């Protein structure tokens, strides 16, 4: 896979131009507005999801991103509770949260969402929630249909940093009272970009966690997704480690911080953790920051065994990110500075 240095925004514009009818897009130019984002996460499996969500809330503070909804793709009683706690604490209690039923359930991972939820202070959870009945939350693929139907055409970016369950169910959905379009048609009409953390490449490629835990859904997404995809593979975030020192030393401004509690209740401290999911957020939020190398355009696919493949194709739908040693340092410094910054709700 060869690499070149044009800005991500420029390349994505070329891909979208070659794939779509730009005449219909010109009347919906939202380039001067915040980026409309839906965040799809397996919150609780790894701490990078919580770090990535912190970034999104900071971008909300800066009005560079409008977070339309948060979709949970981990089958857990606690993931949506932690998402609710985070949203409330950061000052965005009205953001809609979707849940998953009969999704991927992970038993052998530490669930920091549960651990934080179980901590009590005088019989109450440490952090307030805004949703009254989590069992009544919409299923994520239904919430996708609702939210997408309300947005301008070709205006939404989906950031998927967990299992592909919700996205596959969305693609396979039928018309309903939100939209007469099928799921695939609705995505093509409303979504301009899918940013994915997943997969693995190179000599030591692996069956990456997000892919292998729901292979069939990943296959559906990469076979049928109708808009451009950028993918940050395992190898990118694995080489950029968020430092425990930043958690231990830089949050004195807050006595109770849900991210800090989550970090401490995921692994024995101190530990540095890969920034897999953060890279997929960064690629969307800072497309002109020259943080990544970009592959040539191509097409992603998933084997029955759970391996990801990338086939270069002229005017291909997809690109894959990579980083060099200089970019790794630049990205890490960016992550630490942004995440250490107090959100507006706590100022």
Describe this structure in words.
- The protein is α/β, with parallel strands linked by helices and 347 residues long.
- The protein starts with a strand and ends in a 7-residue tail after the last helix.
- It is globular, with a radius of gyration of 19 Å.
- The protein is 38% helix and 18% strand.
- It has one domain (3-346): Alpha-Beta Complex (Inosine-uridine Nucleoside N-ribohydrolase, Chain A).
- A nine-stranded mixed beta sheet has the order 1-12-15-9-8-7-2-3-4, with helices on both faces. A two-stranded antiparallel sheet has the order 5-6. A two-stranded antiparallel sheet has the order 10-11.
- Integer tally of domains: 1
In the CATH classification, which architecture applies?
A: Alpha-Beta Complex
Mean pLDDT: 92
Q: Class by helix and strand content?
A: alpha/beta
- Shape estimate: globular
Share of residues in strands: 15-25%
Radius of gyration (CA) equals 19 Å
CATH topology: Inosine-uridine Nucleoside N-ribohydrolase, Chain A
Biggest sheet character: 9 strands, mixed
Oligomer: single chain
Number of strands: 15
User: How far apart are the first and last residues' alpha carbons, in Å?
Assistant: 45 Å
Give the topology string: H per helix, E per strand.
EHHEHEHEHEEHEHHEHHEHEHHEHEEEEH
Which spans have pLDDT < 50 for at least 5 consecutive residues? 1-10, 13-30
CATH class: Alpha Beta
Tell me the helix content. 25-40%
Number of helices: 15
Across the major sheet, the strand order is 1-12-15-9-8-7-2-3-4
């Amino acid at each position: 896979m060869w690499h070149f240095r044009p800005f991500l925004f420029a390349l994505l514009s070329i891909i979208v131009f070659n794939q779509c009818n730009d005449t219909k897009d010109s009347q919906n130019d939202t380039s001067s507005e915040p980026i409309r984002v839906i965040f799809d996460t397996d919150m609780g499996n790894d701490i990078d999801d919580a770090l990535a969500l912190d970034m999104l809330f900071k971008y909300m503070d800066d009005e560079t991103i409008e977070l339309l909804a948060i979709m949970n793709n981990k089958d857990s009683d606690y993931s949506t509770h932690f998402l609710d706690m985070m949203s409330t604490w950061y000052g965005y209690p009205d953001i809609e949260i979707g849940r998953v039923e009969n999704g991927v359930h992970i038993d052998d991972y530490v669930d920091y969402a549960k651990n934080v939820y179980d901590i009590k202070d005088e019989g109450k959870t440490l952090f307030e929630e805004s949703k009254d009945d989590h069992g009544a939350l919409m299923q994520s693929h239904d919430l996708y249909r609702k939210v997408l139907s309300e947005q301008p055409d070709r205006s939404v970016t989906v950031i998927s940093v967990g299992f592909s369950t919700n996205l596959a169910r969305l693609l396979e959905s039928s018309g309903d009272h939100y939209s007469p379009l099928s799921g695939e048609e609705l995505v093509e009409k409303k979504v301009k970009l899918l940013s994915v953390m997943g997969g693995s490449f190179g000599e030591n490629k692996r069956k990456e966690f997000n892919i292998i835990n729901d292979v069939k859904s990943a296959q559906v997404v990469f076979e049928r997704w109708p808009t451009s995809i950028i993918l940050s593979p395992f190898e990118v975030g694995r080489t950029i480690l968020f430092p425990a020192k930043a958690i231990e030393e830089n949050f004195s401004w807050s006595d109770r911080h849900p991210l800090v509690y989550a970090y401490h209740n995921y692994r024995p401290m101190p530990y540095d953790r890969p920034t897999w999911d953060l890279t997929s957020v960064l690629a969307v939020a800072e497309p002109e920051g020259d943080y990544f190398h970009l592959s040539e355009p191509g097409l992603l696919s998933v084997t029955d065994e759970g391996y990801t493949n990338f086939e270069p194709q002229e005017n291909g739908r997809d690109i894959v990110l990579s980083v060099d040693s200089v970019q790794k340092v630049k990205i890490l410094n960016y992550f630490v500075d942004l995440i250490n910054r107090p959100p507006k709700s706590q100022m």
